[in-house]
Design brief:
Structural class: alpha+beta
Oligomer: single chain
Radius of gyration: 38 Å
Strand content: 35-45%
Number of strands: 37
Length: about 575
Amino acid sequence: MRSTSLKKIQKITKKFDNPLPIVLTGGSDGILKLWAVGNGTAQCLWKENPADQPKENFIKEESEDDQKTEDVKVKYTIVSMDWCEKSQTLLVSTSERNIFIYNTETLKRVKQLVGYNDQVLDIKFIKSGDACNKIGMATNSELVQIVDLQTFGSYFLHGHTDIVMCIDISKDGSYLVSGSKDTTVRIWDLQQYSCIGVCIGHTATIGALALSRRSSNFVVSASQDNTLKFWRFSSDSGVSCTSTVFAHKKDINALAISPNDKIVASASQDRTIKLFATPALTEIAVLTGHVRGVWSLDFSPVDQVLASSSGDGTIRLWSLTDYTCLKTFEGHAGTVLRTFFLSYGLQLISSGADGIIKLWTIKTNECVNSFDGHTTKVWALAVSPDESQICSGGSESEFVVWNDYTAIEEENGIKEQEDKIEKEQLLKNYMRSKSFKKALMIAFALGQPGRVLSIFEEVFNVGGESEVMDVIKKLSGHHLSSLLAYIRDWNTNSRNSGIAQIMLNQVFKHFPPTKLLEFTEEHKVNMGELLQGVIPYSERHFQRLDRLLQKSYIVDYSLANLNNHVTAIDVGEEVN
């Protein structure tokens, strides 16, 4: 049992008119209580009503006869409490490493934070109207976790007695189905967070689930007993199994239902993909080609094409008309665990055991981008209905939300291009008007070392050195670091070495070494590397100039001798 101090509780219990000290307690029953203590007695002033708590916080028992649920007890134990002065809330931590946040005026729970996730085995987005701000997760426990992506508050669905292996969400976000090692499939109403049906019939772990796409009245389950079952359900009539078929020789890893609800595809460790017609689960075709177990399936939203990913490190596209392999994608370093269609069937997104998420363009068979957000296997991958977000989770017990910034990047690219064109025009105007100072600043802003060099050359040709020197004195740290890098590059060419040496001389003349080091460190430029790039070429240029100077002495000597010879000839002619 844990209790908070009198000073903190006084702010919470102003509505209780009692002269005795007030204590708030919580313990193994998971219920908060307010007590007035003193004179050797303790009086309970307030007890948290379990009905005020979300229904997902209770252990629920089902009767196999009528499948009615009955609340038994709260599942967690309260281990500590504290008062948050800044937010004026009460924080309660539980044995499940979760934190409950209570409003101090109403003493009702307003938020729940999850302190720890185990391996993320499966993730699905939950649609609510036009928004898609929640996800459902299976996290290697008997609980199904619902996370609000805006507040990151969590809800839990209790009911399974063993680890939940897989989940699926109806297209409209009304229902969630979960499969567990307890061999049952549970159907949840996400409006009430209540279990409306339990599918009992499999004899081994449920490995894969798929809810109908067009309607929301049936679910197909796959188990390690190698069978598929077709279940019809409704909130009124309950759940019934209408078809069962022995599908594969080994564990079934994935299920997918076509957009028109007419075909169910199953993938297995036996390296095959099978297609079944609903609702009778009549076998249509067997797709072979993968050399290791198949882990994921997805139907194209626009074409008669099925995508599959496998332990052989490949993704394959299959025709649903002639059942042949259309394309193969290679790039992951290990097993490809998940794959989905994007952009109306024009792209694929995949995750693998290498911890990498890859984006593929189907037309060119190319991987156009790779996303490194995980360090181990990415078991779970989900795409939001509007494809604006992707959520991934893996063995490191984290889930990552990825936002699509393609449109923003394109807009920024257009703005940058327009800004560049405008600056280019300004640069030309300044050069025509001989405004070298402004032209240099524009060239630095554009990051064009060739333009900067041509401006310096023209300046020295027209005698505008003083204007250039004035610009150098006023250079910011960023532009000065850029100029030093330009000088290093110019100095590698003997044609530009003269300008480079003049500019280097001016930089060292106007900026002391300490200032240069300060600028270069601030902008993450290695001054030592810059000088190491300048010194060897400068020595080479000076050696070349020394050789030219030595050769010039021969010219002087030849001219002097020639003058002497001409003078002797002139004297001889005068004598004659």
